[in-house]
Design brief:
The complex is a heterotrimer of chains A (415), B (342) and C (293).
Chain A: H1 5-21, E1 33-39, H2 43-53, E2 60-66, H3 70-79, E3 87-91, H4 95-100, H5 108-114, E4 123-126, E5 129-145, H6 146-151, H7 160-172, E6 180-181, H8 188-200, H9 218-231, H10 243-251, E7 257-261, H11 265-269, E8 282-285, E9 300-307, H12 313-326, H13 329-334, E10 340-341, H14 353-360, H15 372-382, H16 384-387, H17 393-410
Parallel strand pairs in A: 1-2, 1-3, 6-7
Antiparallel strand pairs in A: 3-9, 4-5, 5-7, 5-8, 5-9, 5-10
Helix pairs in contact in A: 1-2, 2-12, 8-9, 8-15, 15-17
Chain B: H1 3-31, E1 34-35, E2 41-48, E3 52-59, H2 61-70, E4 75-76, H3 80-83, H4 90-98, H5 102-111, H6 114-145, H7 149-164, H8 167-178, H9 183-192, H10 203-230, H11 235-243, H12 248-276, H13 280-284, H14 294-303, H15 310-341
Antiparallel strand pairs in B: 1-4, 2-3
Helix pairs in contact in B: 1-15, 6-10, 6-12, 7-10, 10-12, 11-12, 12-15, 14-15
Chain C: H1 2-6, H2 10-37, H3 42-45, H4 52-56, H5 58-64, H6 71-79, H7 82-113, H8 118-131, H9 134-147, H10 154-178, H11 182-190, H12 195-224, H13 227-232, H14 240-247, E1 249-250, E2 253-254, H15 257-288
Transmembrane segments (chain C): 12-36, 82-106, 118-144, 150-177, 198-223, 257-278
Membrane topology (chain C): Multi-pass membrane protein
Keywords (chain C): Cell membrane, Membrane, Transmembrane, Transmembrane helix, Transport
Chain lengths: 415, 342, 293
């Protein structure tokens, strides 16, 4: 039985890391301490954590817990003293609850002592203090089928307006029934899509310096109108398509233009997963602009790590050094296609191009505001009716504000 | 049985329930009456990998913690959370009732409120799936009872499959089969001669799909219990009914069904309760846009995002318990009468 | 019923058998489809083109050269170490069943034998307990469990599952005990047994079928649980269902659905043996008890 290439490569990767983990104990320079890491469960982090585990020795204990439930465990796990985990691997949304509760420690002295390999851009600074170290970036960006665009006689679209025109042309030429797809599934995906679009229009989600929502304006309406206009060229099931699904639909050759996650790009161009002709004809470019705006309509994300407050300084030092070893530049250099690394001397692989182009285009990061999660939840729940044409855009935004306001009052952010 | 012996016997079970269910319920009930402290928010400079540095608001964790140390539960809010827009929405309902453009408008606007939207599907699901699943289970039990004993083992196993395959993946696979490229969805398109038919795209079809899945998933439980009950139907009664010239249907109607009635109460009780807490099918079928339930609202409060809205989830949980008690009250009254007769 | 069956007229027999066949087909088809599909690549089993790909294995042939592949099983069992979660599941389910039944038989017996009014209220209270959504309970456990340093260990998850399962177990066993004549244990006590001896030596032997039936439902609860095990167990103690969920991937990150499909098939197969083995007891067990309501 011949294994697929993807399979073989994953197998080799995992086996290599297993084999490496067994005999070779890396010298991370840690004398003693206990390292306990809580993280999400996916390939990129599995690699980083397996590298950090190499720091284990007779006096250094490394325990990891990789679970998709990490977001729900992190606050209670770090609240106790000593904390259950010394390291929380977080992203720019999941760091917020930990900051809100004040459960993270400033890392400035550790960075100064052991962070020679870290780039200044990797440091997440709040009020001048380093609170987290980022090592992977991610964003949504365009996946284009250049063969379809050529057949339709179109140039590469740069904006959502171009995309709508392209979709019309592709359908009229009979090349595809549903040239567009977006992650419009009610809930997290739909809200992320709105945030992207709204940021692309240059909108501000909140009134400056407060938790009062500010999305009921022309930019909000325009963002919704563009999202709705695109659904005309989508499969009627679009309300059930999440980020994973649109990549798979794209890889199956059923759609021509999507704004998909960079972290999933491998699934669209890997010849083992994509239908014939899709991988070779795919171009990954930065996210499009919208409404004449200058910045790409996509929020930027990062994955990084933070160190718990309620632990001994010794454990904090051991944890920091183990994590810095786990994300040392060679890890990114040797696995360029596993993620878009933010670490030193990273040479982007093929799949990282889109994310970097989006970032270089000046896209805004996903807001790290204390009450952003509440707005995200409200958006995900209340926009669904509009997207299905059962409600006007004005009413949808009004519902979002009402739902958010009730939640923010309970959270203590609004009176 | 004397009190002492009674409590000695029930102690382990009671202790487990009190510690792990009753205590949490009390704390949840208390929690639902409080909201979080006003957060002390400050503006600080924030630097991230892509955008350089900007001024952004942050929670001043130290100052907030000070407030929290004084009053660990938060600010007392009474039934405020129960009555706000994301739950019973009393103010909004009042506004709708006092100013609306007829019945249709009222229904549409009430349905727009998240709690009532969830309640509508929850109740529909409960009252459609429970009776139909029980009926289907009963018919299967009658049918299986009549097949040769040799085949019964495998038939029972296959009949239980909808119940024992992990719903997490079971729902995903059935969902895929029902999608327009899947074997069921594509077959339906051919049968109904409508190549654009998609069970996922319209609200009505999504509801019907979920209801059918619910019946399919729940029927095996009723089947097992009823099948067992059928084994005990007294022979003599059936024989004498036959001698009296009762038809097959009359025998089922007047002998078998009355005999199974207490069992049906038990099944109905359990099923009503489980169906009222419907959750997995909604996630498994990606149906959030068209159908939400109370349990889904709780899930959304606790897991939908990085923040956890404990107060809100606690209020919805208490409302779920109240809902279950209301639903079960006829059965409870009956049990109370039976008990007093004993 | 045997008598009536012999006399079933032909049209009714055909109708009844036809109905059972139809149901078995409906019940079993998705699973059989899954078993078949677990030997294909994802692009076939979850094909965006047509379900016909899953039958013919078009992409599977293109990728692996054969119409069947064991990649899903290889991935789940070898690469992602499904075996350790199988072991954990066995430990958790067996313990939950044993402890649930021990607590449940004791409590159910007491509830069935005591005539005082508080037994009714206890039964009602158990129902209210059962109405509480599990996910709210579990979120409330986290902080205290972390503080007491009992989070992540199997015994914690086991006792929580037992407690959550108690209301159902108590109700079911209570009805079984009602069907056993009181005279049985009372005469034993007259003969000089203590209450507990009468329970253990006289009542329990008669109760086996009821215990086994209730055990089956406890087993299914522990076996299929996601809410409790996913939140209360650390990675080394993870059971099958959270493991399968982790195969499915998360937002922004791709999973491997075929690992999950293969894992589900492997997890369901042993149940076939189990159900066949206990089939007789299940039926005779339910017969003995629940009928009395």
């Amino acid at each position: 039985m011949r294994k697929s290439t993807f399979f073989a490569s994953t197998a080799a990767l995992v086996l290599a890391s297993l084999a490496a983990a067994l005999p070779a104990r890396a010298d991370c320079g840690i004398e003693k301490g206990s390292v306990r890491i809580l993280a999400n469960d996916f390939d990129g982090l599995r690699l980083v954590l397996s590298e950090a585990e190499k720091c284990a020795s007779g006096t250094v204990k490394v325990i990891t817990n990789q679970t998709t439930e990490h977001k729900n465990l992190q606050v209670p796990a770090l609240k106790i003293s000593p904390a259950e985990y010394t390291v929380a691997v977080i992203a720019n949304n999941s760091i917020v609850p930990l900051l809100n509760e004040g459960l993270l420690r400033p890392l400035d002295d550790l960075v100064a002592k052991y962070g020679q390999d870290l780039l200044p851009t990797q440091l997440i600074k709040l009020d001048g203090k380093v609170m987290a170290v980022a090592f992977m970036g991610n964003s949504q960006h365009l996946f284009l089928r250049k063969d379809i665009l050529e057949k339709a006689g179109l140039a590469q679209p740069k904006s959502y307006e171009d995309i709508l025109a392209a979709a019309k042309a592709i359908r009229e030429k009979g090349l595809m029934d549903y040239p567009l797809s977006a992650s419009d599934k009610a809930g997290w995906d739909l809200a992320a899509e709105f945030v992207n679009m709204y940021l692309g229009y240059g909108g501000e989600l909140f009134e400056a310096g407060s938790a009062v929502p500010a999305i009921r304006n022309e930019k909000g309406l325009a963002a919704l109108a563009t999202m709705k206009a695109m659904t005309e060229y989508m499969n009627p099931d679009y309300m059930t398509y999440n980020a994973d699904e649109i990549i798979k639909v794209y890889a199956a050759g059923k759609t021509a233009i999507i704004n998909g996650w960079g972290s999933l790009a491998n699934g669209a161009i890997d010849p083992a997963k994509a239908a014939d002709g899709v991988g070779d004809n795919t171009v990954l470019v930065g996210a499009p602009t919208v409404g004449g705006g200058s910045v790409p309509a996509a929020a930027l994300w990062w994955d990084g790590f933070s160190i718990a407050r309620n632990i001994s300084d010794e454990d904090a030092e051991a944890s920091f050094r183990a994590m810095v070893y786990g994300i040392r530049p060679e890890v990114g250099q040797n696995n360029p296609d596993l993620a878009t690394w933010l670490t030193k001397d990273y040479k982007p692989g093929r799949v990282a191009v889109g994310v970097l182009e989006t970032a270089n285009g000046g896209a805004k990061p996903y807001p790290m505001l204390p009450y952003m999660g509440l707005l995200h939840t409200a958006l995900g729940a209340e926009l669904a009716e509009f997207m299905q044409g059962r409600e006007s855009a004005e009413e949808a935004l009004k519902d979002v504000e009402a739902a958010y306001t009730a939640a923010a009052r309970e959270g203590g952010f609004l009176k | 049985m004397p009190h002492r012996a009674f409590f000695a016997f029930i102690m382990p079970s009671l202790a487990a329930m009190l510690l792990f269910i009753a205590l949490p319920i009390v704390s949840v009930a208390v929690q639902s009456l409080y909201v979080q402290h006003e957060r002390v928010v400050t503006e600080v400079e924030t630097c991230t990998p892509f955008s350089g540095c900007t001024k952004e608001t942050r929670v001043d964790a130290e100052a907030t913690e000070k407030l929290r140390n004084d009053e660990p539960l938060g600010r007392f809010n009474g039934f405020g959370t129960y009555l706000d827009r994301n739950h019973l929405a009393v103010t909004e309902i009042g506004a709708i009732l006092s100013d609306n453009a007829g019945f249709k408008d009222t229904v549409a606007r009430v349905y727009n409120l998240p709690f009532y939207r969830a309640l509508a599907f929850t109740l529909t699901y409960t009252f459609v799936v429970t009776p139909f699943a029980m009926l289907l289970g009963f018919c299967i039990a009658l049918g299986v009872n009549a097949i040769p004993p040799f085949y019964k083992g495998p038939v029972i196993f296959f009949s239980l499959l909808p119940m024992i395959v992990t719903p997490l993946v079971g729902a995903l696979i059935v969902y895929w089969m029902a999608s327009s490229q899947g074997i069921l969805g594509a077959t339906l398109q051919v049968l109904l001669n409508d190549p654009t038919l998609s069970l996922k795209s319209s609200a009505v079809l999504t509801w019907i799909t979920l209801l059918v899945y619910g019946i399919w998933h729940n029927a095996p439980f009723s089947f097992v219990v009823f099948y067992a009950g059928l084994q005990t139907v007294p022979h003599d009664t059936l024989e004498s009914a036959m001698i009296d010239g009762a038809s097959r249907w009359e025998r089922i109607r007047f002998v078998v069904i009355p005999h199974l009635m207490p069992l049906a109460t038990f099944v109905g009780l359990v099923q009503l309760m489980d169906n009222f807490r419907v959750f997995e099918p909604i996630v498994g079928f990606s149906a959030e846009a068209n159908a939400t339930s109370l349990s889904w609202s709780i899930f959304n409060d606790l897991r939908g995002q990085v923040d956890q809205l404990f107060g809100s989830a606690a209020a919805t949980s208490m409302l779920t318990i109240v809902g279950v008690i209301i639903l079960l009250s006829p059965v409870l009254v009956r049990t109370w009468r039976d008990f007093n007769r004993r | 019923m045997m008598v009536t069956k012999r006399r079933q007229p032909l049209p009714l027999a055909v109708l009844s058998t036809g109905f059972v066949l139809l149901w078995v087909f409906m019940a079993a088809f998705p699973f059989i489809w899954t078993v078949w599909g677990s030997f294909k690549v994802e692009q076939d089993f979850f094909s965006r083109d047509s379900w016909w790909f899953a039958i013919e294995g078009t992409r599977t042939i293109a990728r692996t050269g054969s119409a069947f592949t064991g990649d899903g099983y290889y991935g789940a069992w070898v690469l992602r170490d499904f075996f350790s979660s199988v072991i954990n599941t066995v430990i958790v389910t067996v313990s939950v069943v044993v402890v649930s039944l021990t607590f449940g038989t004791l409590g159910g017996y007491a509830l069935a034998r005591s005539g005082y009014r508080y037994t009714f209220w206890l039964l009602m209270l158990a129902l209210v307990f059962r109405a509480m959504p599990h996910i709210t309970l579990v979120s409330g456990y986290l902080l205290p469990f972390f503080e007491m340093n009992i989070w992540g260990y199997m015994p914690t998850a086991i006792i929580v599952l037992v407690a959550i399962n108690q209301p159902f177990t108590l109700w079911m066993l209570h009805s079984f005990f009602l069907s056993i004549p009181k005279d049985l244990d009372e005469s034993a006590m007259v003969d000089g047994c203590s209450r507990f001896q009468a329970f253990r030596l006289v009542v329990i032997p008669v109760m086996w079928p009821g215990v086994i039936t209730t055990g089956l439902f406890s087993f299914l609860l522990a076996y299929n649980d996601f809410a409790v095990t996913a939140m209360l167990l650390s990675q080394p103690n993870q059971t099958m269902v959270p493991k399968i969920a982790s195969f499915l991937g998360t937002v922004q990150q791709e999973g491997n659905v075929m690992f999950a499909v293969a894992a589900v098939v492997s997890a369901t197969a042993p149940l076939f043996v189990l159900v066949l083995f206990f089939q007789r007891q299940i039926v005779s067990g339910l017969t003995a008890g629940a009928v009395k309501g």
